[in-house]
From TrEMBL, chain A:
Keywords, comma-separated and alphabetical: DNA replication, Nucleus
GO BP terms, alphabetized: DNA strand elongation involved in mitotic DNA replication
Known role: Required for correct functioning of the GINS complex, a complex that plays an essential role in the initiation of DNA replication, and progression of DNA replication forks. GINS complex seems to bind preferentially to single-stranded DNA.
Residue ranges occupied by any GINS subunit domain in the UniProt entry: 38-133
Primary localisation category: nucleus
Gene3D superfamilies (alphabetical): 1.20.58.1030
Family statement drawn from the similarity comment of this UniProt entry: Belongs to the GINS1/PSF1 family.
Species assigned in the record: Ignelater luminosus (Cucubano)
UniProt-listed SUPFAM superfamilies: GINS helical bundle-like
This protein's name: DNA replication complex GINS protein PSF1
Lineage: Eukaryota, Metazoa, Ecdysozoa, Arthropoda, Hexapoda
InterPro entries xrefs: GINS_A, GINS_bundle-like_dom_sf, GINS_Psf1, PSF1_C
Subcellular location: Nucleus
UniProt key word DNA repair: no
TrEMBL record, chain B:
Subcellular location: Nucleus
Chief place where the protein resides: nucleus
Subunit structure: Component of the GINS complex.
UniProt protein name: DNA replication complex GINS protein PSF2
Organism encoding this protein: Ignelater luminosus
GO annotation, biological process: DNA replication; double-strand break repair via break-induced replication
Domain DNA replication complex GINS protein PSF2 N-terminal intervals: 2-61
Keywords: DNA replication, Nucleus
Superkingdom in the source lineage: Eukaryota
Domain GINS subunit: 65-163
From TrEMBL, chain C:
Record text on subunit structure and interactions: Component of the GINS complex.
PANTHER family given in the database record: DNA REPLICATION COMPLEX GINS PROTEIN PSF3
Domain GINS subunit per the UniProt entry, residue ranges: 78-172
Identification of the protein by name: DNA replication complex GINS protein PSF3
Amino acid sequence: MSAEKACALVKELHRNQGTLPPYNNDLVNEVTKEITQLIQENRNDAQESERSRGSDLLEGVSYISTIRVRHAAIQRNLRCLLAYHYNRVRSLRTMRWEFGSILPADIKANLSTAETNWFSKYSSILAKYMRSVGEDGGVNLAVDLHPPKALYIEVQCLVDYGRYELSDGSVLLLKKNSRHFLPRVECEELIRQGVFQHIVI
Amino acid sequence: MNPDEVEFLAEKQLISIIPTFNSNVIHLISGDVGPFRASLPVRVPLWMAINLKQQRKCKIQPPDWMNIEQLEELKEEEKRSKTFVKMPSEHYMIEAKLLLNYATDDISRADEIRTIIKDIWDIRMSKIRSSVDTLVRNAGFYATVDHLTLMEINTMRPLLPHALDQVYRMKKAQSTRLPTQSTTLSLLNSSHRGSSLSS
Amino acid sequence: MSLQSYTPNYFSIDDILASQERCPCKFIVDIPKLGRLNPSAESNDLKAGTTLELPMWLAEHLSAGRHPIIAVELPRIYKEAYREILKADACAVDLHKLGLYFYEHGLYVKQFDARGDVSKILLETFQVRFRQLMDLANNIGSDPAVQDRLDSLERKLFKEGHAARTRLNTWLTDSGTPIEAAAMVINHKKRKRVDVEDII
């Protein structure tokens, strides 16, 4: 009645800002059920009020206040439910820009089926758009976020990444703690994804 | 804006260098640069000057204002004045930072210059802080930012504009007093709100 | 960096949580069947005259219109006694203790305050405390414990201001700004580390 479950959903997102907690299927279902139930109760009471008004009995009970309380609760539940889904998709969108098109497994596990679908659709729309910009095979909008200072930069590898192919076809073996001097464009995305650390002298 | 974005804008500023190489005119989107003749001064954008300097292909001629006497005078004036004094360059702080980092050997008494510029910056920063405080306290509608450089204005972003937005929300809340329980009041108020929206 | 300052909207998590804050409400009419709203009574109906602490979203809805169901009272922290404390020295007050959403809740509450004292004290409090907030964000000569005494709106401003100041300081001292890992990536790594520590 006081939309506490729905609010718990929103609180869950608030507590986990900057990441995505597991999709709370159980609670979402409970809130949906509560909404349907409140609507049903309101419909019953509205019909009963209507019937008693039609009869000659002046004592007919008015449920108008009851209905108003329930109606407020329905709207509140709905708002929380929508806000929950909306804000999850928002952070999912940010993740596409920050992690790239492949999400870490533990984050992937937290998505609902609809969210997984949304993510792959968004990824492909975005990729298609980036390819279509300009003439020369498109523009990668996820790089050059800061004004560049030099064409080459020094980076240190933070994880055992394995083989990495550069755009000229040569292959690098990226081991933890190895240092590389590479074209900025080749490593910016890996820095953003936490594979490299940019070394500034 | 990030400071490095402001720096990027400032790097368009022209500066004199004495190249140690020969080259024809270079055509850039921003305009032509050169031709370069060894030991003949030429004006190039700051970013190019720094880049050539790093490759030891030029000597940079520091701007005229970058000398102890003029800066001391400026510092005293800044101390005396209640308002902000006009700086010799719109991007004095960035030029100083880049030149003092990459071209120390081209500047005489570089360390002293570094200290004075830092002093001027600090005096201006504390002026900014107190005037921003006054602005918020009085819920002022505007502030004069004459003679403030882009980097200085940028130090108050996003805190100041966001705080002013909140002041505005609270001020607006004061002027639109919503209805209390009484019906007549709520009717009166709703018409009042309607008129304030249209005006 | 968020480019937009905080403005409440339908999907805003902060606004939803702020409107969950409660205020005392007195029921003017009987509400059949909804006795369960009052946890301390067992009757089926809710009787007129009952006073309950209702969340703001409900209070706002039920007090509005031609036929209000409830009369809303000012929560304690917006009453005169507290307003006097804020007037005396707003900087010394622990707003966080008064309410996580002191300003946002207040902006809702002010509609039940016909004299406008609440909206006045909100504005004054914010204006007086701003200097402290700015100095805190700039890390100069202020007590770091002040951070715990900010309400959620101030905290948001502080975080933005502090992040901007850190970037400026890096720019002032370092020769170049490094490219950094994305915020969510850093967050994810941190969490992973915590998880591993939990297992060990």
